[in-house]
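Reopening this one. Same input as before:
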Amino acid sequence: MKKHLTNARLFVATVVAICLFIAPTVFGQEKKAAKVDPSSAKAVVTSQADGWRTIQFETTQVTAPDVAVTPDGEWLIFTMLGKLFRLPVKGGEAEQLTFGPYYDNDPAISPDGKLVAFQSDRDGSAGKIFVLTLASKEIRQITREVWADAPNWAPDGQSLVYLQLLRELWNRSVIPFRPQAKVRRVNLAGGEPETVREQGYVFLTFYLPDGRLCWTVWERDATSQRVTTRIEVLGPDGKVAVSERLGHATVVLTLDTYSHVLPSMQRNATDKLEHLLYGGKSAK
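Same output, byte for byte:
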């Protein structure tokens, strides 16, 4: 496929609100007819000998992009129609980074700003984690298991954590829009991924300033049907501390489920999370 650059102007408002002007570009190839809103875009569809169609168009809007900011605050990596783009924060020209009949999303930028991890179906699967080297545009596959999602870099940039979605356990009567997942970690130098949190309704991973890995867990009480979200923190010893503040209406169920967590460790983690999230007292 021919590579094209995209000219864009981008304005980022509170949280994530994006409006941009895109000059003619090729976002990908598809065998279906393109549907473009004529009020905001002009499309040119070119048929190719291999049966694919190249779509070029202008648009003034991007709907619900995934956005990541480089550590130096100078660049944005965002998604549009299943492709990754790079754009200066100050505005200017946006460069298309990924190409082909694939769907790329969930960009995560490495701490040194040189690599972008993302989810893609470019190996023919439902979704795996890949890493793009920005300087060379080289892309390499990181995970092999099916339905990997939401990559996140470790603070040292040597490993990635991600969610392995378990679609075979998807009970849509409990939560219709998301299957259960495991939290997995893989070293970029090689080796097999390890599971750091077994299956559950895990939605998000993140790191605390001290480098500890955290994730959020969604739960619904079988009796009251109350939906709650808690934060779990992976300690240096491999034990999981649970945030009481974001947990159940009573702490009993949490402690029954996570009885291996020491009370002092749990209290310490809760105090730190309270301080980080709500400006409360810090752990002693």
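So the earlier flakiness isn't reproducible anymore. For the record, Helices lie at 251-257, 263-278.
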